[in-house]
Amino acid sequence: MPPCQCCLLGLKPGIVGSIRHFGAIDPMLKRRLADLGVAEGSNVTIKRRCPLGGPIMLECCGQLLGIRKKEAAQIEVDVS
């Protein structure tokens, strides 16, 4: 069965996905994420969705990160 492709925003908490493509996010944000170990091919897990349009908490490389929903919608992931 081939992996399902969706955006990071579409993952449910606890599901592991592999980052496929960053899309059209800000180059400075992409660089910051790369400095934190979040790169194409990295496995990420959604830990929590903050209410009222707040950020999404995700885990990557043993670190917890918060990312805006606007940017999470542009990051494409593969789910196996």
From TrEMBL:
Pfam families, A to Z: FeoA
A GO MF label: transition metal ion binding
Keywords, alphabetical: Iron
Transmembrane segments: none
Domain (Ferrous iron transporter FeoA-like): residue spans on this chain: 6-79
InterPro entries linked: Fe-transptr_FeoA-like, FeoA, FeoA_core_dom, Transcriptional_repressor_C
PANTHER family, per database record: FE(2+) TRANSPORT PROTEIN A, FERROUS IRON TRANSPORTER FEOA DOMAIN-CONTAINING PROTEIN
Protein name as annotated: Ferrous iron transport protein A
Organism of origin: Fontibacillus panacisegetis
